[in-house]
Amino acid sequence: MNFLLSPEQTEFQDTLLRFLDDRCPSTRLHELFDEAGYDAQLWQSLVELGVAGIALPEEHGGSGMEMIDLALVAEVLGARAAPTPFLGHVLAGLAIAWGGSEAQRARYLPALASGELLATVAFDEVGAWQPEQWRLTEEGGRLDGHKQRVPFAEHADLLVVGLGGSGLGLVDRASAGLEIKAEDAVDRTRPLAGVQFTDVSVERLANDVGVAARLRDAALVLLAADAFGGASRCVQMAVDYAKIREQFGQPIGQFQAVKHQLVNMAVEIEPARGLYWYAAHAFDHIPADAERYAALAKAHLTERFLQVARDTVEVHGGIGYTWECDVQIYLKRAMFDYAWMGNASAQRARISL
To answer: Where is the Acyl-CoA dehydrogenase/oxidase N-terminal domain (predicted)?
Structure first.
């Protein structure tokens, strides 16, 4: 079994990295982070590179690729802490591609692939990330209730909403009775909001049986990939800083204790690349392993990202705690990846049952 990337996949990742280094360097990232902002132009440029429709059907304007291709994009975005609505948008598109009627697919998917519409997903209720736990109920095509921690909700045109009974529904951002309120979020690269539904019109996905669980697994794989990218970047930042920061007349990277810390960080992360690759592969090709490995990849990689980000702060010393340092952005992104869709303990507990 060959898990090496194809030349096309490697080139696409390299292209995205060059693009983000050019269009969203550290200075621009800090500007957006300070404002908790959304750079619509940056997102539209990524859409033009094919990011939004990479896994959507070709007949509806997408590229028809697989989960591994989506995950490779997520890795690059994580490596540059890119402030984009990628996660919610692609999950919403997959929900419609898998669960929508032909009319729903024809109506929404081309607009999502082209960036004409921006979408997100509204899953979380208090203590209820999993589809079988959702309580928001659709009655007669109307919704009443609340969702929280919805990424980029203030900017989205369309919401894919998790419903009681593991269902999914579509809500137009302009619907009467819909109230969106920004929430305090530690990761400003992915702003969150609470969404209140008061007699809001909802369009149920026509073929949503089993789709919510599959969508959950897709989210876990993408979070794992994002975490791998972010953690790898943290290791590189720590190594680079250890080469230039001097203490007692020599770079701190020459001290044995620092060397050991850097090596431990690297060996925690690099071997885990295969975990998210396999989870993405299983998602499309080994259904019996898909749920388990999506959860394991999310649990392990987001946990490691959080620890490596903290270690990177330590290597940087006092400057690592400052707002001006890039490291704090990655630490906060690690906190998002760890918590969103359920933390490591919750993932392991769920698949151990």
So the answer is: 6-116
Compute the distance between CA of residue 168 and CA of residue 93 in angstroms, rounded to an integer.
12
Which of 170, 204, 238 is a domain's end point? 204
Domain shared by 257 and 285, yes or no:
yes
The answer to whether 112 touches 53, Cβ cutoff 8 Å, is: yes
Distance CA 18, CA 291 (A): 33
How many folded domains does the chain comprise? Answer: 3
53: containing domain: 7-114
Copy the structure tokens of residue 152: 């980029």
Identify whether 321 is part of a domain. yes
Query: For residue range 172-216, what is the model confidence (pLDDT) as tens digits?
Result: 999 999 999 999 989 999 999 999 999 999 999 988 889 999 999
Segments in the chain forming alpha helices (H): 7-23, 26-35, 40-48, 67-79, 86-99, 102-114, 211-244, 256-269, 273-285, 287-316, 327-339, 344-352
What six digits make up the tokens of 177?
């009775």
- pTM for the complete prediction? 0.95
Complete edge-to-edge strand list for the sheet that includes strand 167-172: 119-122, 158-163, 167-172, 203-204
**Residues of 84-121 as b/e, b for ≥16 C-beta within 10 angstroms?**
bbbbbbbbbbbbbbbbbeeebbebbbbbbbebebbbbb
Report the DSSP pairing between strands 192-201 and 142-151: antiparallel
DSSP H or E segment with residue 162: strand 158-163
Q: Which pair of tokens denotes residue 74?
A: 């997520």
Task: Extract the residue ranges of the chain whose pLDDT is less than 50.
Answer: none
Question: Does 222 share its domain with 179?
Answer: no
Buried b (16+ CB within 10 A) or exposed e, 62-80: beebebbbbbbbbbbbbbb
- Kindly state whether residues 346 and 221 are assigned to the same domain: yes
Alpha-carbon distance of 5 to 166, in angstroms, equals 35
